[in-house]
Amino acid sequence: MKNKKRKWPRVLLFLILIGGTATGLYLYFSRQSVPVSAQEYVPPTFPLAKTDMVKTVSVSGVVRSAETQNVYSTQTYPVKEVLAGVGDRVKAGDVLARLDMSRLQNEITQAEINLEGARLTVNEETRSISNSLSNAQTSVESSQISLERQMLNTANAEADLREAELNMEEPFDSYAYDKAIEDAQLAIRRRTADLETAKQNLDDVFTEFDDYAYQTAINDAKILLDRRIGEHTDAVMELSEEKDAAIESFDDYAYRNAVSDAEKTYKRRVEDYKAAEENYYNEYNNFVYLASNPEIPYESANAAWAKVLAAQSSMDTAERAIDDAEAARARAKNDLSRAEDEYEEQSADSKDQSVSGAEKAVKTARNAVDDAQRAYDKAQSELLRAQRDAADKNTDAAEAANDSVKKAQDALTDANRVYEKALTDKLRAMEDYTEANEQQLETAWKNLNDSAKQLQTAENGLKSAENSLAQAQGKPGPSSNNIRLQELTLERLNAQLLEGEIIATQDGVITEAYATTGASPTGLLFVIEDTGKLYVSANVKEYNLLSLGIGQQSYVTTDATGDRVYDASVSYITPKAVSAAGSTSVEFEIRADVENSDDDIRIGMNAFLNVETDARADVFAVPISAVVTDGRGSFVYALENGERREIPVTVGLKTSTQAEISGEGLTEGLPLIERPNVTAESSPNSMSPMMMFGGR
Length: 696
Prior knowledge:
This protein is an alpha+beta fold. It is built from eleven helices and 19 strands.
């Protein structure tokens, strides 16, 4: 609480100071604005006048020499003495340095000795030239003889080529080969017929046996057997019924089961026999197929015949099993019959006449079954016996027929081989005939080409010999050439001796010097620049580039020369930007030749270049602030008799401060308002203290 009480006097004092300051400022500005409120605001004006306008582009640059020469030396001899340095003014032809040419002097002495030696050999080489002429003449005569001989060889080669071409046009005589092919085709047809005959004979061997009658007998016997078995079954059932009706029935269950089992066994044996019989016929038919097919080896037929014999053995075994089953069935039936007989003997008095009749019927039916079975078995046995006899009889015939088929097949193969050989012989003969003619033609072409090449070689040899003769006749002696070579060498060395002095190539001042005594003069030695021909190199922004052109008047000033102005003109504008690629400030280099240079402006100084890009003479020019431009156009405002008058104008050339205007109503001396956009309300003298501080 004590601290808060202490702060209140300070805050009160601060508010009093602010209020007093504001009151003082208000009274001050109120006093200043009294004259303005008492009279009307008059804007400042200026008289319209004609003048000359110039628009320039100003840039900074560097002073450079327009003519610069770099002095080099092609010699490697060391520098002996340096006669000029940086800052020395020289003239074209002045000696700037000398090289140590003592080694070159020795080479010149040796070249003079070589020249004298070459002159001493002239007579000897002259005699050699005479011998060369004689040899060249002999070579020409020999080449002419060789050319005539080769022309004769070429004519012979052309005749051989024509003969080979005629042989190529002759057709191939194939009569003898065609006759051999026809004979071979006829032999094939004959051998094919023989093979078909042999195959037919083999088929006949296996089709001679006719088992139709035997199969019919077996079928009839089987039908009869089945009928008798049915009759026997009916008789047994009837006897059973009669016995059941008797006073005392005979228990024949065990006997009848034995008979039934024997019947079932017998039927199984019959089925086994049928299966063995079917297998036998299958193997037999397979053997017949293999034996009658000439394309199947004879060994396969023999193996098939072995399978036939094995099937025959299986069928015999099945037949014996049928006989055993038949015997067992007969025994079961006999046991049943004997038991029934014994029963009949024991109960004869108790049986009536009907039972005796049924029993007789059973016996009769059983006997009929036995007879039918024996007839069926006999029919099958007779078929098997007939098949065995036919197979035994036909084995030798089949082997003979197979041999005939094989021989016919071999004969047909031989005939085909002869036919193929005849075709091959004809094709080979045609190929040999064509190849021989082609070879003859190729040889003839080769001989002709070789002869043509040799002829060309002979012609070239003759031309070469003639050229050698002409060269030998017209060529100066090699000694003279050697002398000239030595003279040229001496001249070259003397010319190098003259290069021992490093000469100034133009008038000017040496601005750079790199020659050092004792060092080899490699690279740049001196730089000579003409200080009387200077230019200023500067970079301009791309937006100023279109206003610049070659020959534009320019002015140059430097810091070192003060207010002195040098005349210049634009002599070069680079076609490509000199700023880095992608730079946001693109610049181009321009050059302006200085026209009135003196010794005070020097190479390398920083300079300011002003280029006149446009000029107007004797035109109305006003400050840029005096022109008002809106959607209607451009206007200036005249103040006449206290009234503002709007005057439409056309704006021409503009600089950074002035604008050219033209239009009706403009006269020299016309008072124009300097800033027509400034009104009395916006004048600083009319602003209230609150407005000065941002109030309303």
